[in-house]
Write a structure and sequence with these properties.
The protein is an all-alpha fold.
């Protein structure tokens, strides 16, 4: 009876739908990866033994490699998204080109990231110098893509403010649109927080910030948790 209750519980069904998606599994692994990155730093600073830190280091490295393998071929998805954005006649020029450029940067990042993964696993041979170049250029493209996303969200927030200023809040239609604007603004604020946290990771990897491993791990965990929650809601 207890087994049946657990088997047919709505949460179990929702969980199975969530893990059935590649995005769901990736978000879960990413959340654990960056949590482990933060905990490795934290335990080291607190003077814990190497044996205590080792499991977290292993999670950080192995989950990162697993995610790279799961992302192989995902660059095509972003290339298609860039093409769709450019073909969208309903978008104004600025958001259209920012969206397309973001997707192209992500496609380039994932292409180089896959190449680096293949080199790291000895499937494809690259010299150490070439490997370092691939990793650095991948970080640059990732950073550029996130920056485009930040600018895109900032532009949409400005447009929402303009729309809100024209509303007649005294009538029912104005109130309805006002509620819609508030919902859209909340989503954009969440996206800005997610992208802002993600921006820290490649920016630090490229030496553009002086953040330590703890802050990078915490930022990555926050953005991963937001992404995980969003994917969880999509699979309801």
């Amino acid at each position: 009876m207890v087994a049946d209750t657990l088997t047919y519980h709505p949460f179990v069904s929702h969980y199975l739908r969530f893990v059935a998606t590649t995005v769901g599994r990736d978000k879960a692994l990413r959340t654990l990866q960056y949590l482990a990155r933060f905990l490795s730093w934290y335990l080291l600073r607190k003077g814990y033994t190497a044996a205590s830190i080792a499991p977290w280091d292993a999670i950080k490295k192995n989950f990162g490699s697993t995610r790279k393998a799961m992302r192989i071929g995902k660059n095509v998805e972003h290339l298609k998204a860039a093409s769709v954005a450019l073909d969208d006649k309903t978008l104004a020029p600025i958001p259209k080109y920012l969206a397309a450029l973001r997707q192209l940067c992500y496609a380039g990042y994932l292409t180089l990231d896959t190449l680096g993964f293949l080199a790291g696993t000895k499937i494809y041979t690259l010299t150490p110098t070439r490997t370092a170049w691939v990793q650095k250029e991948a970080q640059k493209l990732w950073l550029a893509g996130i920056t485009c996303s930040l600018l895109h969200s900032a532009y949409k927030l400005q447009q929402l403010s303009s729309r809100e200023g024209l509303l007649k809040k005294t009538d029912a239609e104005g109130k309805l649109e006002g509620d819609q604007i508030r919902k859209e603004r909340q989503k954009l604020h969440t996206q800005l927080l997610l992208d802002g946290c993600d921006w820290v990771i490649p920016a630090t990897g490229l030496g553009l910030t002086g953040f330590d491993e703890g802050l990078v791990g915490a930022a990555g965990f926050v953005s991963s948790w937001i992404g995980l929650r969003q994917q969880w809601e999509k699979t309801q």
